[in-house]
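DM between two lab members

TW: hey, do you still have the DUF3500 domain-containing protein entry open?
JB: yeah, one sec
JB: this one, 321 aa:
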Amino acid sequence: MLHDVADATRQYISLLVGDQREHGLRAVTDDDLRHRWAYAPGARAGLVLGELGRDQRKAVHGMLATVLSPHAYAQATAVMALEDVLDHREGGNRDRHSGDFWTVLFGTPGGDEPWGWRIEGHHLSVNVVVADGRGSATPFFLGANPARVTYRGHVVGQPLRLEEELARELLDRMGPTARRLAVVSDTAPHDIRSGNSPRVSPSEPVGVTPAQLGKPAGELLVDIVRFYLDRLAFELADDEFARIDPERLHFSWEGSLRRGEGHYYRIQGPELLIEYDNTANEANHVHTVWRRHSGDFGDDLLAAHYDTSRHTVARGVAQNG
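TW: and the structure you got?
JB:
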């Protein structure tokens, strides 16, 4: 599967012309830029989709589609399209456009050196690193504004619907005793707590555990985690899921339990943080993120790669000496 990602990335690189390579390619060792991610509107490093040629834009989408599962790719493209819907709602005052998404590459596939890329703009950030045959894609952010587009009370568009519905089903399934443990505040934060910080430190877990939920609700909590991980193509998702210890998960909810009112939830594990927030614009503006404490931006893969490289060089020097 990572071969497909590499092929799609090489296809994009082959279409770059003139100074596009200078602006679109950075070193994978540029840690400052790799960790400088955001989900608010604004220009980024790299090349902006709206100024690329048609074949180049299709190649960027090809990169994204090889990393994401089909349903998550559909979510991502819907999020991008919502920029035009939001721009129309705002009367064009903030000059938003669905072409305002940037691509920057870190290194290039081929050889033994790590490489990766980021595709990012308002409400979308996918950060990919590949090293030694393994891949990473966190932080992974998807948001939506408007979160729901309706007609006479019927939803006609809601790209992050399951992120909310599965959590509400969990609240219903867990029963009143466990729900009292899960709901830790009547007031939701105004945004995801981790924001766009370069790193997230493990915090004291709060809320309810699988052991306190019982089997049906506990299984649903694991299913919700799997749903977030399944934003990635199945091989990457399987690898990420293998890192999870289901017994050490915590689920917490903040804010109102009533639909249409501000709410937030968090799922924590030793190497996992999932956050969902829907409070702005009368609870019609969703932010979601999936992060790994030691593995965001492929930092764990890069550290292992460079550690192995140093040991290989050291052995070579010792043998030659």
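TW: got it. The two ends are 41 Å apart (CA to CA). The first helix runs from residue 2 to 14.
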